[in-house]
Amino acid sequence: MDSSGGTPGCMGQCTSFLRSHKGTVLALEIGLCIVILICYGASRTPGYTGVAIFEMVFSIVFFVIYMLGLNKQLAVVHWGWSDFARALIGALLFLITSIIIVVGHKDGAGIAAGVFGLLAGILFAYDAYITFPTLRKSHTAAPTESPEGV
């Protein structure tokens, strides 16, 4: 198993994807979800952990799909629209739950989770913002002449 061949190994693919803009954003989303889970775990009422868990799992799944290039191999799913929907739903859920947490909680860990949730909501919204322009493809104009030349 010589890794000096033409194709990079799994670690090479991971580091090269982490250096890309999308890879950095996804890694930040995963890290921020972990911090939010830690804060909710230290809080008195860890009832809002579901949003952070689901978004972390979905971010990991999309990170692995983009890192391995499966989005180009599996054309059954439109990965761009799926990623856009994931990021937009995550932004809305994090913003809503974080505002509820910041307004309603009295303990420090809950407020910290709410503040990190607001940051995560902004990061997920930014991810949706940078994903949307990749969905719009340029279309070529259809020919207006008839093929028979009439």
Question: How would you characterize the overall build of this protein?
Answer:
By secondary structure, this protein is an all-alpha fold. It contains 6 helices and no strands. It has helices at 10-18, 21-42, 49-68, 70-73, 79-104, 108-135. Helix 2 packs antiparallel against helix 3 and helix 5 (79-104) packs antiparallel against helix 6. The chain is elongated. 27% of the residues are buried.
Helix content: over 70%
Query: How many β-strand runs?
Result: 0
| Largest sheet entry | none
Distance between the termini: 63 Å
Strand content: under 5%
Name the helix and strand elements from N-terminus to C-terminus, one letter apiece: HHHHHH
Oligomer: single chain
* Individual helix count: 6
Backbone structural class: mainly alpha
Low-confidence stretches: none
Mean pLDDT: 84
Short description:
The protein is mainly alpha-helical and 150 residues long. The chain has helices at residues 10-18, 21-42, 49-68, 70-73, 79-104, 108-135.
